[in-house]
Structure formats: structure tokens, C-alpha cells
Input
Amino acid sequence: MTTTKTESLSTVPAAPTGTGSRGTRVLGAVALLFLVIAVAYGLLISPPDAQLGNTIRIIYMHVPTVMAAYLAFLITAVSSGMYLWKRTEFWDLLGSSAAEIGVLFFAVTIVDGALWGKVTWGVFWRWEPRLTTSAVLLIMYIGYLAVRAIPADPKTRATRCAIIGLVAVVNIPIVHKAVDWWRGLHQGKTVLGTIDPEMGGTQLFAMYSALVAGILVCVWLLIHRFRAGFLAERASDLGLDQALEERRLESSPAQGADS
Amino acid sequence: MSAIVHLHSAVALIGRFPALAGVDLDVDPGEILLLRGPNGAGKTTLLGVCAGLIGLSSGEAVVLGEDLTSHRRAVRRRVGLLGHDSFLYQDLSVVENLDFWSRAAAATVADGRAALDRLGVASRLFELPVHALSAGQRRRVSFAAMICRRPELWLLDEPHAGLDSAGRDLVDGLMQEAAASGATVMFASHELDRAENVAHRAVTISGGVILPASQPEPASQPEPASQPEP
Amino acid sequence: MSAIVHLHSAVALIGRFPALAGVDLDVDPGEILLLRGPNGAGKTTLLGVCAGLIGLSSGEAVVLGEDLTSHRRAVRRRVGLLGHDSFLYQDLSVVENLDFWSRAAAATVADGRAALDRLGVASRLFELPVHALSAGQRRRVSFAAMICRRPELWLLDEPHAGLDSAGRDLVDGLMQEAAASGATVMFASHELDRAENVAHRAVTISGGVILPASQPEPASQPEPASQPEP
Amino acid sequence: MTQTRGVFGDALLIARKDLLLERRAKIGLGQVIPFAILVLLLFAFALDPDRGVLKQATPGLFWVTVLFSSVLTLQRSFGLEAEDGILEALRLSGLSPAGIYLGKVTALTIELLLLEAVLVLGVAVLYDTEFLGIPLLLAIAVTATLGISAAGAVYGALAARLRSRETLLPLLLLPLLAPVLIAATRGCEVSLQREAMSGWPWAALLGIFALVYLTLGSFLFRPLLEDA
Amino acid sequence: MTQTRGVFGDALLIARKDLLLERRAKIGLGQVIPFAILVLLLFAFALDPDRGVLKQATPGLFWVTVLFSSVLTLQRSFGLEAEDGILEALRLSGLSPAGIYLGKVTALTIELLLLEAVLVLGVAVLYDTEFLGIPLLLAIAVTATLGISAAGAVYGALAARLRSRETLLPLLLLPLLAPVLIAATRGCEVSLQREAMSGWPWAALLGIFALVYLTLGSFLFRPLLEDA
Ligand code: HEM
Ligand SMILES: Nc1ncnc2c1ncn2[C@@H]1O[C@H](COP(=O)(O)OP(=O)(O)OP(=O)(O)O)[C@@H](O)[C@H]1O
Ligand SMILES: Nc1ncnc2c1ncn2[C@@H]1O[C@H](COP(=O)(O)OP(=O)(O)OP(=O)(O)O)[C@@H](O)[C@H]1O
Ligand SMILES: [Mg+2]
Ligand SMILES: [Mg+2]
Output
């Protein structure tokens, strides 16, 4: 199956046969460079935090992955809107690829946050509203992927997903605002609020390079996921030609009584 | 464009299965067209495409002058579809259903009552919830809900199924009346003797394509039906 | 007691409505009996009573030697019913359904496959979930699930509905075969031409009662059907 | 002009049909209300009233109960639309999608408000709550309910056609409604306990939420009905 | 002898069919589990964690969540049996009613135990629970689940044929299961907090409940299937 796919695709001029390209290789190299810098500064060069000690270093992973995930969800929302307007496969694939990457990054954030929590708070999870809303957000996009996974006509599926992508994104700012207010109302500052100011120069540099690295990795992954999805669609198109052939054959009298 | 329905190489997928695999079909105004063919041939799918309910994945489709590949919506309110499903709220009574569907179609409540009358639905049944009706009674109510929309294109999926002899004659009469008054009728049927009498023309669909008129019927249709082509 | 089905003044209520209003009927072993009559006459209800699914509110009913007024259960596993519903799990594939229903009826899985084959269900469809089938394909699978139970009494509600011509001939053949091998067949149908050819005897039911054979057909059945009574 | 009237006319038609269906099927409220009261009772069991937990948690439990009951109501409301090809019939009907959406939202809001009214009585009796700040409570109830219906109708319609709708709808909808839960709960707490800050910002937040989803829903219902 | 074998053979056939259906429809656990986790999260909102309520209430919330998820699972499981005349077909099939009942109970128990296993992980992480007295916890989980399935299958079948089943089932079932909720919650509390009293009486109570309903169900399923 894979071989037929690549063979017939290579007969089409300029059709991509893999998910890599010159551009993505360059992008990958740059992302790698920033990753190395971020690791060097984050793990080795920057000083430990006054209160949190070396565990502060988790932040250089925690925050970039959140930001990358938010970016991905935003891309999903924009693509969803564009899909409903333009109705092209491009926007559908972009939206769903971004949602997958976003869920991935967000899950990573929650996992490393939980681990961080274990070392700083002594528990994996607290009923901190931000953590709770994070979990809720994740489930919202898991719902998106669940709908995506339901077999359906591609256009129908695309429309369903686009609607969820648009509706869900509205929730992100509302959730975060509501939570801030909730906190602000009757409780003192929380752990999340207390640590981020007062970062030293190398700490800041580590943070920014980690942020850039996180976003580059996210984009790199997104491009590859998109292309993989695109190729999968083309492969199923090839399956379609064959299915059409078989379907028409049903009508030949030789086939006899078919049901 | 004089054809009411014009399909060219129309391909329609259900899931990933090409239920229609390249259909070419033209239907003239005022025509009564019979779709016949073995089970699973694609008749129901073809009617769904003409109603604008099932999208094409490739090919051309123009119905009632509207291009289905670009905007399917405009067609929908101008066709009447009688499908395998009843299209009725099971918990509402017969008249409540008719009132709702006639008003939804911008007809009056009186149109709905007239349609019930036309279909010979006994007034004893008016206040019964639809789920209490027998199969044939329900089919009549569905038919009434369809005709009170005054559709320009009638799409009927096995319109005779479940009806008693009186009902069958009634349906034949309705189709002929509709065609005479300028509407166009496409219907799928397996009851060839009756169907071919009322149809102006018949096409055979099999394996998702329409067989050329010259080609003999496929093996699963023993009697070579007469095709009174106009 | 030689009659396979013996009903006397049988009254059956659906809700408070007397769908059967005093039916007298005897069916002999090996007979193929056609039930005809207008929509809502009570044909489906009568078949349900014979299957032991619908209780009598008064009257006598003895089916396959079992008295339905006292114990309906014994009859159920000996009849085969083909109703308006498909009796199939929509999410399971065709073969999964057949495997389940054949084993539930104490038949073997091989019986199920043989039945599918007998009904001409193409092997392409075996792995499809039932909800993806066309109306006629689904009907064939239901029929297969019924015959693999090897019922002594066949109760068929519009067995031809939705089937293509090949399928119709197949069903006629199956009924005749069943009768020849000692089973008894009762079927309701509105396709009188075909049905009267295959039936040994026809009774007309209308308004919940069986009309005496001498009486002419009720008004809603225009053509006075020939009644080849044995 | 005609177009606008059309949308609201359609909405009225749909809303009246829904309420009629509700009456005919003799279900929704007749059974959802007992269900909701039951959920309240279960909480009472689960939370062991002696510890004073229950009293503190009353607003939260009230809104969680409303949320679950809404999912039930939505499931039923859209389940009826998905039977027997009704969704196809609606697509063919020529009713404007925005009208259908607004009609469903209207009917749902009315049903849910009725439910809440009964539930408030239940809470008053079972949890021995004193009600203070009635206008604020009313504002919160109306805006929160509108938000639930507005968001719920979109996902209800989306899930209706799928064979897995019973489970998909809560999965999609409940996370979406988490902010409503937070805001309504906090708002009611404020109102009941006379906390320092006024609860009106919460009502405003709920209003914004409802508005955003109403707008979004009116636009999204067209592609939803037509292609999904 | 033959009769007995027949009942268990029938039960096996039904249970295998149910689990297959579960796999094919790719729904139940794939969506019920996220739903259950979500319910846990919603409680966290409703109960405002800072007050320490949550930790205290963990066992109660766990079992309320299991209860809601069971209703969902039951609804789906019996919804599938009521479609397309399947119930009629089962009545005609010759399968013994007790066999059908035991088969449904088996499949439900397996599905619910799986759900609880995942949920326990969720609770462990989310509510930071330490597990003490594992054997007791296991005994409680198994007996409580069996009780839920045993009672649920009876009402599931009863509600399945009615047009109002979505709402009727929780209404009938939840009051019936209130004792299970209480017993399982108290038992878990005992086990987790090492309260003075041993928790085994609770497990025994749950066991008795399960047994009573299993026996009752095996007998009641015949009239239920045949005449309802
Ligand atoms: C399960 C555990 C955790 C989860 C799910 C989690 C989740 C998140 C999320 C979603 C954000 C982005 C917030 C935004 O919208 O701006 C965030 C930011 C942040 N988190 Fe965590 N987190 C967890 C644990 C922790 C721990 C243990 C710490 C430190 C002790 C921490 C420190 C931070 C910091 C410093 C930020 C960025 C500053 C901010 O925007 O407030 N997180 N976390
Ligand atoms: N998901 C799917 N996978 C494979 N095949 C499918 C799928 N869904 C539908 N089909 C096939 O598509 C075809 C649909 O045909 P359609 O319902 O249009 O037939 P029809 O001509 O109306 O038949 P009938 O006379 O039985 O009503 C059937 O052959 C069916 O098996
Ligand atoms: N709750 C009810 N109230 C009043 N009448 C009812 C009720 N339920 C069913 N009926 C009537 O009982 C009759 C049932 O008839 P049945 O379904 O047996 O008819 P049938 O002969 O099979 O008709 P068809 O040819 O249309 O299938 C119908 O006339 C129906 O209107
Ligand atoms: Mg069809
Ligand atoms: Mg009938």
C-alpha cells in the first residue's frame, strides 16, 4: 500500500512524497539550535531560584509548552474560521493538525507541571483553579479530537471540527479571566502568582530562548503533521479511484445478482 | 438550461464508499422518471444528491437551475423528498405534524389539512400520535407533509411501499397530476409493473452508474422492462 | 388439533384500541396464507399475536399446539418473524449479527453463513456495519437471520418490500420451499399480483376482522383479487 | 426587513413546536425535575451534612445539578430532532438555520428556568438556605441559563446525528460550560453570603458569555445544519 | 442440568456480544471515561478546594461520579437493545431471560470496573489520595459495582422500551442505588482514614445488596422481558 502510494505520487510532478523539505530542515536546525541554547542556559548557566532552588528549571519547559499550545489552539481557531469561509481541505487539515499538536503540548505542560508540583508542593495536583481550568481546556480539545476520529464524510467531519474549533477557543480567555477574578476576589496570591517576577538576566535569557525553541518546535511539528495528513488524504484518494472502479464493476451483468 | 436535473460524472461518497460512481442523467421538465436497479445500486443516494442533502465529491450537478457544487441550499426548499424515514415527529399527532411542516414550508395550515384529505388519511387518525399509526398510515401522512410544500421536483423513494391498493392508485394519480401541472417527478421503485406504467421513462442504475439505455438489464432484473422513452 | 394456527374471536388491544376485533382463522400445516387488506386493518397486529408477542384480551388462540392465552413463551422460539423493524444490531457487522442471532437460536455459525448466502448477500457487505446497508440489503440480512432459526411457522410482514426483482423471486422460492418441507407460512402483503401467485390461500382482513371469503373485497381494494382457495 | 421577521417567525414556530412536544411527550420537566431533586439528595448523602460542608457548598451543588439536568434536557430535545430523518426534513424545510437555533434556545431556556425555579424550592427545603439579594440571583439565573442553552444548542445539534451522541454531548459540553459554573457559583455565593464585593460582575460575565455564544451560534448553525 | 448450562451459556453469548458492541461502537469507555474525569473536575469547581472540603469528600465524589457514569453506560447499553425491534427479537430468540440478564450484568460489571480503575488513578492524582486498606477497597469496589449492574440491568431493561427512557432511567435508578452510594462511601472513608470501626461490614452490606438484586433480577427478568 505504501509503495503504490509513493510510486504513483512520484509520477505526479512536484507532488511531495515525504513530509520534509528544505525549508523544514532549516527550520528544524534553527529550532535545534535554540533548544541547545535553552538547555545550556536553563539547566547549567542560569542560577537556581532563591525559594525554589533548582526546581525552578522546570519553568523553562513549563511555560514554552503552554505558549506553544496556546499558539496551536489559536491556529486551530483561525483555520476553522477560514474553513467555514473558504471550504478548502488546506484549512481543515491545518486546523486539525494544530489541534493535535496543541493537545500534545498542553498535555506535556500538565505533566511537567504536575511533576513540578510534586517536588515543590509535595502533591501532584492541587485544586488550584488554574490547574483545574487547564484540565478542562485539555478535555475540550480532546473532545475535538474525539469528533475528528468519528468516521464520516470528509466535508461533514471538517465542518463539525471547524465549529468546535471556533466555539472552544472563545473559552480560553474566559476561563483564564474568570479564574484570575476568582483568585483575586477572596484569596491571597497563589504559587503561580508569586514566582515569576524578579528573574535574573541569565534566567530571562534562558526563558526567552526556551520560548523561541518551543514555538519553533511547535511550528516544525505542525508542518510535518500537516504534510502527513495531506499525504494520507492523497493516499485515500488513490484508494478512491480503485473503489470507483470496483463500484462500477458491480453493474456488469457478469457479476449477476448482487445486493 | 432546460433540464430540471442535470448530472454529469457525478460521484458521491458515503463515508469512503462511492455510492454514486459517475452518474450522467438529464431529466426534462414535466417528466416522470423511474429509477430502477438492484438493491444497493445507489437509487436512494441519487435522490439524496438531487435534494441537495448529499454532497458531490466530483462531477457536475445542476438541479432546478442551481449548481449543487456551489450552493446546495437554494435547491432544498424547492424539492419534496419522500424517503425511507418518515420525517415526522413521533410524539406529535398527525395534525400537529402537518401544521408544523406546512408552516415550516411557508404553506398554510389549511394546505396541510387538504393534503391529509388528498392522501385519504381517515379523520379518526388525526389526533393519534404518529408512533401509533400502522406502517401504511404513517407513509400516507409523510406523503401529505411532502405535497403540502408544493415542490417543483418530487423525489420519491419507493412511494408505493407499504400502501394498500387504493393508496397505490392514489400515488400514481398524484404523480401524474404533478407532472401534468408542470412539476417533475423522479422515483425509485422495485415494483416494476406498476412503476413502468406510470413513468414516462425509466433508467436503470446499478453499481453507482446509470446503464446506457441500449444495454440489457443486469442479470438481477429478469424481465426486460419496456422503456417508453419520450 | 391439526391446525397450526387456530384463532377464535381473538381480540387484541394496542393501548385501548382494538386492533383485532374478533378474528377467526385456521391455518393448516404446510399452507402459505396471504393476509391482505387495507392499511391499518390489523395485519401486523395479527402476525404479532401469532408470534406470541402481543397478548389477547379475549378469545382463543392456539398456535403450534400451544395455547397462547396461558403460555405464550413456548411458541416464540418456534416461529420466525420478519417485521417492519430489522431486528439487527446497527453497529455490528453483517456477519457479527448473523453469528449472534444464529447462536441465540441454537443454530450454528455455519447456518448463519449459509443463510446469508441463500439470501444473496454479497460478501463485500459481510464486514459492513448494518447501518451502512441500503434498505434492501438490510432486509435481506434480516431475512437471513430469520431463516437460520429454521422456524416451524413463518410470519412475514410485507416480505417483498424493498427487495429488487431478484430478491422478490428469491423470497417466493423460499416460501414455497418452506411450505414444501412442512413449515407453514403466513404473510401480509400489498403486492397482490405477486403475492396471490405464491399463496395457496388468501384472506382479507379489514377493520380488525377477517372478512368471510364470500364477501366482496372492501371498497379500498378496487380489483377483486382471485382467491385460489384449496 | 422580511428576512429579519423571517428569522424570528421561524424561531417562534420552532419554539412553540418544542414546547408542544414537551407537553405531549409528558417527559422533560415531569422527569427531569425529579431527577434534579434526586441529584441534590444524593449530594446530601455523599457529603455528610453533619460536617457543615453541604451548607457551604450549596450554590456549587445547585449549579452542578442544573448543568447535569441541562445535558439531559438537551439530549432529549435534540434526540427528538435526530429521529426519523427529522434533521433532513429541517434542512429541506426552508426554515432559516438562525431561526431554528434561536427557537431551540428559547424553548430550552424556558424549560431550564422552570426547572431552576423548582430546584430553588428544593434547595430551600433540603439545604435550609436563606435567600438574600434576590435581584442579583435572578440576573445570574437568567444569564447563566441563556448561556447554557446558547452553547448547548450548538453542541446538541452537532452531536445529534452521531451514533455516539449520548456520551459525546457531555464530553463536549461540560468543559465548555465550566466558566458558567464558576461564575454562577461565585455570583450566588456572593449574593447569599453578602461577601464584600458585589456579585454583579459575575452576572455581567455570564451575560457576555451568553451573548458571545448566541452570536456564534446564530452564525454557526447554518454550516452545522447544512453540512454537518 | 442442561437448563443450568443453558443459562450460563446464554449469559456468555450476551456478554460477549455486549463487549463486542462496545468495541465496535468505539464509544463507551472512550467517552464515558473522559466524562467521568470531567465530573470530578466540575466538583472541584463547585466545592472550592481551598476550604478543604474536597479532600474530605473524595470517597463520596468518587461514588457519585461512578453512579452518573453507570447511568450513562446503562442508557447506552439498553438503548442499543431497544432499537430496531431488538427486544422483540430477543423475546423470540429462545435465550433464557435469566441468561440475558446475567450476560448484561457481566458485561456492565466489566465495563464499570474498568472505568473505576481509571477513575481511581484520576482521583489518586487529582485529589492526592493515599490508599490504605487495599483489600477492603477492592472488596467494596467489586460488590458495589455488582450491585449497581444488578439493579441497573433491571431498570435499564424496564426503561428501554419507553419513549422517555433518557430521563426515566436515572429517575428510577438513582434512588434505588442510594444505599449503595452510602455504603460504598462510608466503606471507603473507613478504609482511607482508618476510622475506628472496620469497614468490612459495609462491604458485606454491599455484597448482600448485590446478591439480593442478582437473585431478584434473575427472576424478574422473565416477566420483564416477556410481558413488559
Ligand atoms: C499540574 C500542574 C500544573 C499545571 C496543569 C499548570 C498549568 C499552567 C498553565 C496552563 C499555565 C499558563 C497560564 C496562562 O494561561 O497564562 C501555567 C503557567 C505557569 N505555571 Fe504552571 N501548571 C502546573 C504547575 C505549576 C507549578 C508547580 C509551578 C511552580 C511552582 C508552576 C508555575 C507556572 C508559572 C511560573 C507559569 C507562568 C506564569 C503565569 O503565566 O502565571 N506551574 N501553568
Ligand atoms: N460506509 C459504507 N461503506 C461501504 N459501503 C457503503 C457504506 N455506506 C453505504 N454503502 C453502500 O452504498 C450503497 C448505498 O446504496 P443506496 O442506499 O443508494 O441503494 P439503493 O439503490 O437505494 O438500494 P435499495 O434498493 O436497497 O434501497 C449500498 O450498496 C451500501 O452498501
Ligand atoms: N394507541 C392507539 N390508538 C388508536 N389506534 C391505534 C393505536 N395504536 C394502533 N392503533 C391502530 O391500530 C391499527 C394497527 O394496525 P396494524 O399495524 O396491524 O395495521 P396493518 O394492517 O399492518 O397496516 P399496514 O398495511 O399499514 O401496515 C391501526 O389502524 C392503528 O391506527
Ligand atoms: Mg434505497
Ligand atoms: Mg403493517
Notes: Helices of chain C lie at 43-50, 73-76, 94-104, 109-118, 135-147, 165-180, 192-198.
